Amino acid sequence: MGNGKEWDVGRLLGSSSAYWNASTIHAGVKLEIFTVLGDRQLTAAEVCGRTGASERGMTMLLNALTAMGLLEHDGELYGNTGFSNSFLVKGEPGYIGYIIMHHFHLVDAWARLPEAILSGAPVEKRSHGEDVERESFLMGMFNLAMAIAPKITAAVNLEGKHHLLDLGGGPGTHAIHFCLANPGLRATIYDRQATAPFAEKTTTRFGVADRIDFLAGDFNTDPLGGPYDAAWLSQILHSNSPEECEALINKTVQALEPGGLILVHDFFLNDTMDGPPFPALFSLNMLLSNHGRSYSAKEVGDMMARAGARDIHRLDFQAPNDSAILCGTV
């Protein structure tokens, strides 16, 4: 099933070279061009003085970013647009550079996609440093979750619930917003120990550190604690094999009290597994990294039912990237 838009040579070549745009944005964020500019206008030479770049290369980058509409150019001076100043300058509340850097860290692996297709296994990619990659991934997930968390809390009814498990919750964005929307709720973020400092920072920033604790562990092998009366599994199933997903859903259901809710938020494929486009492409991203993939809502719903959940249904929520929420009662 296609997405309804006809292909022509122009669209094909535009898609084939789309990484030029992505790589230009990556370079701008990696070199912190937008942050260097801030609310000032600088010459290419002045930007070079603050970044250590060559004037030849920097001038080309600044002109390309201007052509893309991310910078403004007046004579010899370059400056941020209002959009860039809001979202690409470090320290601004809307900064989303972390998720852009996560995309940058994936580029090497995507260049080896044919190898992964042939082998059916992840590929080895260049390391940018464990700490750097962890920060980009975790705070990138924070960037993405912040954009949709308020809509999610409006769609998920946690009335009467007292203790939420945010499984694989990373920096705790969803736990934070659930607690903000439900004053009687407390939450436990469950993730690896290396994630704890990020969760502590974000829960403190939003003033809910006294209602959210952190439990360190590997959810595939370690106990989940509990009991809880709600469990939130956001964007974690796609990183696991079908067998691991089945086991994890079973373990989660076992950690819930009778009447508890299990909520699964992910990029769901349709039943024929050939769309929508983003979940289908995201499966390839998982092929490059691990043994996971995107799953259909039917596959996950069947796993939930086999684990003992009932009244399984899709909530009235759909994100721009086609993520959705399945809910079941234990």
Shape: globular
Measured between the Cα atoms of the first and last residue, the distance is 35 Å
Query: Per DSSP, what share of the residues sits in E-state strands of 2 or more residues?
Result: 15-25%
Poorly predicted spans:
none
Which structural class matches the secondary elements?
A: alpha/beta
The number of helical elements comes to 14
Determine the oligomeric state from the structure.
single chain
Please give the largest β-sheet. 8 strands, mixed
The appropriate CATH architecture of the largest domain is: 3-Layer(aba) Sandwich
Number of domains: 2
What name is given to the CATH topology of the largest domain? Rossmann fold
Q: What does the radius of gyration come to?
A: 22 Å
Give the helices and strands as they follow along the chain.
HHHEHHEEHHHHEHEHEEHEHEHEE
Return the average pLDDT rounded to an integer: 95
Core attributes:
single chain; 330 residues; alpha/beta; Arc Repressor Mutant, subunit A; Rossmann fold; eight-stranded mixed sheet; three-stranded antiparallel sheet; 11 strands; 19% strand; globular
Describe the protein's topology.
Elements: H1 9-16, H2 18-30, H3 33-37, E1 41-43, H4 44-51, H5 55-67, E2 71-74, E3 77-80, H6 82-87, H7 97-110, H8 113-119, H9 130-155, E4 163-167, H10 173-181, E5 186-191, H11 196-205, E6 212-216, E7 228-234, H12 242-254, E8 256-269, H13 277-289, E9 295-296, H14 297-306, E10 310-314, E11 323-329
